[in-house]
């Protein structure tokens, strides 16, 4: 991974109370506040219908907000949109491009849409960086799904944006191509591009993002550095398979978050945090069991992933809404 973003610089994008209510009453964005740092990779996670694409559409001028303010590069996007838009790139979720155009012409045309002079060297640089140079004279319709998605990224990069939105950039792409695109995205950040991506693949956020935002039903549930989220909300789970079932919990374990399961044949620990305390607890529990002569055949230990935290937050949010 490349260096961390400059947290001391002015935010590159600021959303304050951003709201979108569609005719019929559907609230797609519910007073969203968000500040994006220059040079970071920010992952916006959420289920289908959470508001991810609507948020991107609002910033990129494709969706008219119902309320709130948006500022990019110091410009108010409601009144000074054109100055900011030339510095914003978008890779949409859908493959929306002329399938009969060649790769070269499609990417060159995108640059011209922003009023920039033709620059063959720039187009070649973009195509080479995305492993598209050998495909430059092929029609887009002849490319694989993964290559078509790379063309969308090339089109968005052609006018040299400072802020790039990637809406589900690896949807429908196989694992190897997905990892290759992760490398390309990291290389873009290395060139100074600030990147906001939405994804259904939680491992993408774990692999790449500096910060993560979780959105559900239009509400931003959490925004924080990825490592801070893991430290604050991460947990350790351990399952001791006991050689003989226990009728009750041993008194010596009263201070630990443990419970018996599977008819007393399993001792389950759920606790700790992202600092390693959980594993320390598990080691201590193992010692206590051994000293008490309670045999166990094995221990299965796992730490929370970002996906576990994501699912837990959504479940809690749904429970709160239903209450």
TrEMBL record:
This is ATP-binding cassette domain-containing protein. Gene3D superfamilies: P-loop containing nucleotide triphosphate hydrolases. Keywords: ATP-binding, Nucleotide-binding, Transport. It comes from the Bacteria. InterPro entries: AAA+_ATPase, ABC_transporter-like_ATP-bd, ABC_transporter-like_CS, ABC_transporter_ATP-binding, P-loop_NTPase. The keyword ATP-binding applies. Pfam families: ABC_tran. GO terms for molecular function: ATP binding; ATP hydrolysis activity. The keyword ATP-binding applies. It comes from Qipengyuania oceanensis. Residues 13-242 form the ABC transporter domain.
């Amino acid at each position: 991974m490349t260096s961390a973003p400059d947290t001391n610089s002015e935010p590159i994008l600021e959303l304050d109370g951003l709201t979108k209510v569609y005719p019929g009453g559907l609230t797609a964005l519910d007073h969203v506040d968000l500040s994006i740092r220059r040079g970071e990779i920010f992952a916006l996670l959420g289920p289908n219908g959470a508001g991810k694409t609507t948020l991107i559409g609002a910033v990129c001028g494709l969706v008219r907000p119902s309320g709130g303010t948006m500022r990019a590069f110091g410009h108010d996007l409601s009144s000074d949109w054109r100055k900011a838009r030339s510095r914003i790139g978008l890779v949409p979720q859908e493959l929306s491009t002329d399938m009969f155009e060649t790769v070269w012409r499609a990417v060159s045309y995108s640059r011209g849409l922003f009023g920039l002079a033709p620059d063959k060297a720039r187009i070649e640089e973009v195509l080479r960086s995305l492993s598209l140079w050998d495909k430059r004279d092929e029609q887009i319709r002849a490319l694989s799904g993964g290559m078509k998605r790379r063309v969308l990224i090339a089109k968005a990069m052609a006018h040299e944006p400072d802020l790039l939105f990637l809406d589900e950039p690896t949807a429908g792409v196989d694992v190897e191509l997905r990892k290759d695109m992760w490398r390309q995205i990291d290389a873009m950040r290395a060139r100074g591009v600030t990147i906001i991506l939405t994804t259904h693949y939680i491992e993408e956020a774990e692999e790449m993002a500096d910060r993560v935002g979780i959105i559900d039903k239009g509400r931003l549930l959490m925004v924080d550095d990825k490592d801070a989220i893991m430290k604050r909300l991460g947990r350790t789970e351990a399952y001791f398979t006991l050689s003989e079932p226990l009728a009750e919990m041993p008194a010596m374990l009263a201070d630990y978050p443990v419970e018996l399961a599977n008819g007393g044949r399993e001792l389950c620990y759920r606790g700790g945090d992202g600092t390693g305390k959980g594993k320390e607890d598990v080691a201590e529990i193992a010692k206590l069991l051994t000293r008490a002569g309670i045999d166990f055949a094995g221990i299965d230990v796992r730490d929370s992933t970002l996906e576990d935290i994501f699912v837990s937050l959504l479940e809690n949010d749904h429970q709160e809404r239903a209450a």
